[in-house]
Amino acid sequence: MKIRTSKIVLISPVGLALIAYAFFLACTLVPPSIYQGIMHENNYMFMHLPSHFLVGGCLATFLMGATLFGRKAPTPLNDRRTPGKMRASLIALPIICLSIVNLASIALLLENNPNLLMGWLSDGRSAKMDLDATGAMTNALPALYAVCWWGLWRLMDREYATGKREWTLRFTLAAAVLIAVYSALIKVARYDLLPCVFGLAVVFLTHRYSTGRLQLAKSLTSFLIIIATVAALFLLMAWLRGSEELAAIGRNVVGYTASSYNRLAALLDGDVTFPYSGTGVYSFKFLTYIPVLNRWVDFASLFGMPTKEEAWMSEFGAIAQSGLDGSYIWVSAFGYVYSDIGVFVAVYFFLIGLASRAAWRSVVSGRVAGLIIYPWIAFSILFWMGDNFLALSKLIVFIGTAALMVGYEKLARSRHQIA
Fold it and tell me: How does DSSP classify residue 83?
């Protein structure tokens, strides 16, 4: 398999996978004394050969899937027809509707949790643990920022086609993003906040690539800015969740990133064993909870899996029993899938590569499905060091939102055609 690095786009599946792999390599080269000084636990990942075989093998099969059947990568639009533009009002409509739903969701959360408005500022950890989200339509949040990703692309389409700034639409989109950010903050939900911001950046850079305006030097600068922004948001969430001292914040950062590969090494050595390994919950977690339908069907029992909460809670004890810090439970996406399906993990990542390639081609072409699903895939690839994010139930929300938006856009364009 030959990959020409001159053709790699940092925000493509291949580019993101190579960045994620470079981070893994860097983690396994950190001197044990430095890691132990920060985390106060043994360093098992230093030059750990089984980890290198597993992660390297998964990367290879992923790259095979991401480049298979592809004679050419998607090409920019600068030599093709100018993308058609939608009416600004039709772009704004779904954004406004979902913003209203999320405001209602925030109101319900505040009704369920009277002290939430200030509680998340004073003690974010307790606010997160004690949050009562009953009937609060929490899945409206990922639907909102998915529609914001779509709206940003359509806004950029209009401005690219007309050469004019759409200030009203920009304000509408910015207001929706602020609602999404605030909703994530009051729930201290870092893995709603980070995908929202990261996805907007991916859509912005991909549109510039699609229209032939993304230069290598600028893309590197932009990507570094994205990483710095995401890191700053992560630190903010760590502070909200109770980490006030600089050393504690630094430990949180390492605990939620590099230490996942230390736990992967312990997993491969047999020191970490999850009680629900082999049930499929780590590879197909979205099957344990399907939004809306889960009110009537117990999908976890139907598929013979524990609930996502049961699986999550069991991980703390499994990590602590190994002698590692039980506050940090991630074993990386590779470790979770391996604990479920063993050597078939290579096939799993090959299939993810195929799906990533399809989503990348879709988003570069400006198709609705790609605009809503690819940013989540991109986030899950870059954050392979954490959970197996792609398999979370948000995937169902994004697929459902994409289906609705495909229908909406077809109807909108058929009734209001604009050249």
Answer: P
**What are the backbone angles phi and psi of residue 169, rounded to the nearest 5°?**
-70, -35
pLDDT tens sequence for the chain (419 residues): 444 434 558 899 999 999 999 999 999 999 999 999 999 999 999 999 999 999 999 999 999 999 976 555 555 554 444 445 788 999 999 999 999 999 998 888 888 777 766 655 555 555 555 666 666 688 899 999 999 999 999 999 999 988 899 999 999 999 999 999 888 887 777 778 889 989 998 999 999 888 887 765 555 666 667 666 766 666 666 655 555 555 666 788 888 889 999 999 999 999 999 999 999 999 999 999 888 787 788 888 888 899 888 999 999 999 999 999 998 999 999 999 999 999 999 999 999 999 999 999 999 999 999 999 999 999 999 999 999 999 999 999 999 999 999 999 998 877 755 43
Quick one: tokens of 234?
């992560």
What is the rounded CA–CA span in Å between residue 400 and residue 393? 11
Residue 408's Cα: distance from chain center in Å? 25
Query: Domain extents for the chain?
Result: 1-419
CA distance linking residue 47 with residue 45, whole number of Å: 6
Contacts 24+ apart (CB under 8 A), 208-216: 209/9, 209/11, 209/76, 209/364, 210/74, 210/76, 210/77, 210/364, 210/365, 210/366, 211/76, 211/77, 211/78, 211/83, 211/160, 212/76, 212/77, 212/78, 212/79, 213/78, 214/9, 214/76
The half-sphere exposure of 236 on its side-chain side, counting CA atoms within 13 A, is 19
Question: What distances in angstroms separate CA 141 from CA 23, 179, 182, one per listed residue?
Answer: 30, 9, 10
> What b/e readout covers 158-180, taking b as 16+ CB neighbours within 10 angstroms?
bbbeeeeebeebeebbeebbebb
Long-range interactions of 226-233: CB distance < 8 A, separation 24+: 226/198, 226/201, 229/197, 229/201, 230/194, 230/197, 230/198, 233/190, 233/193, 233/194, 233/197
**Residue 83, token pair as written in the block:** 């993308």
List alpha helices for 279-367, DSSP H: 299-302, 308-321, 332-341, 345-364
Q: Side chain identity at 301, as an amino acid letter?
A: S
| Alpha carbon distances (Å) from 128 to 41, 133, 342 | 26, 10, 33
112 CB-contact burial (10 Å; exposed 0-12 / middle 13-18 / buried 19+): middle
- CA distance readout (Å), 299 to 185, 284, 289: 29, 12, 6
